[in-house]
Amino acid sequence: METIRVIIIDEQPLFREGIRATLERMGDCEIVGESTDAADVLEIARTCNPDVALIDAGLTSSDPLEIARQMRHSAPRLAIIILTPSEDEERLFQSIKVGAAAYTTRNISSEELVDTVRKVSHGEYLIRDDVLAKPQLASRVLKSFRELTVEEEETEQKDVYSPLSSREVEILDYIARGNSNKEIAKSLKISDQTVKNHITSILKKLSVNDRTAAVVHALRHGWIKMHEE
């Protein structure tokens, strides 16, 4: 059984202690560090090679999203879970932009927390489809995709060869249009689980751990095109 290495970035000692106790009861989880100092966090990420980082969105000593961005930059395979006081569309959008794998409120149950940590450590992307499917938010995410691809359009060489199957490319194209898993399943007349299986395969093949990165990768290599809103 592989050990899941976790770093906890939360200012409230009691809440942090609860997270630690919950995860240590899993039996295959090791807490490799706890801090709210940005420099300490990045050093722990560099030296301890964590699989999962839990970040309190309400940090006051440091910018939690900037910490997430820097951690993802130095450790692209690190899965980040953003713990937020309440659901907030702006914070969710920013979490998507920095590549968070999951976004959940701090009233998450211990069972849900364990399930979330296990899933993101295996490369799953849990930001909920019903939130991503909000038209205004989906539009902002698509605009973010477009800006990223325009920035590197001149410098990135297009690669006709794709390691993805035609169905996987098709699914990425639907994701780039802002479709949820349920909408993709309905359009392609396949099950939600089949869509999830394809997405897991895409992430593994492209060595990325979230759908934003997968879509940007495919756009930059010319496998799919950015659609106008």
Summarize the structure.
Keywords: DNA-binding, Phosphoprotein, Transcription, Transcription regulation. The protein is α/β, with parallel strands linked by helices and 229 residues long.
Explain this structure:
By secondary structure, the chain is of the alpha/beta class. It has helices spanning 13-24, 38-48, 64-74, 89-97, 110-121, 129-132, 135-152, 166-176, 181-188, 192-206, 211-220, and strands at 4-9, 29-34, 52-56, 79-84, 102-105. The chain folds into two domains: 4-152, Rossmann fold (3-Layer(aba) Sandwich), CATH 3.40.50; 166-221, Winged helix-like DNA-binding domain superfamily/Winged helix DNA-binding domain (Arc Repressor Mutant, subunit A), CATH 1.10.10.10. The protein contains eleven helices and five strands; from the N terminus they run βαβαβαβαβααααααα. Strands 2-1-3-4-5 form a five-stranded parallel β-sheet, with helices on both faces. The longest helix has 18 residues, at 135-152. 34% of the residues are buried. Residues 152-159 have low confidence and may be disordered.
Q: Would you report the number of β strands?
A: 5
**Which term fits the overall shape?**
globular
- Supply the number of structural domains: 2
Our count of helices gives: 11
Instruction: For the largest sheet, list the strands in their spatial order.
Output: 2-1-3-4-5
The CATH topology of the largest domain is given as Rossmann fold
Largest sheet: 5 strands, parallel
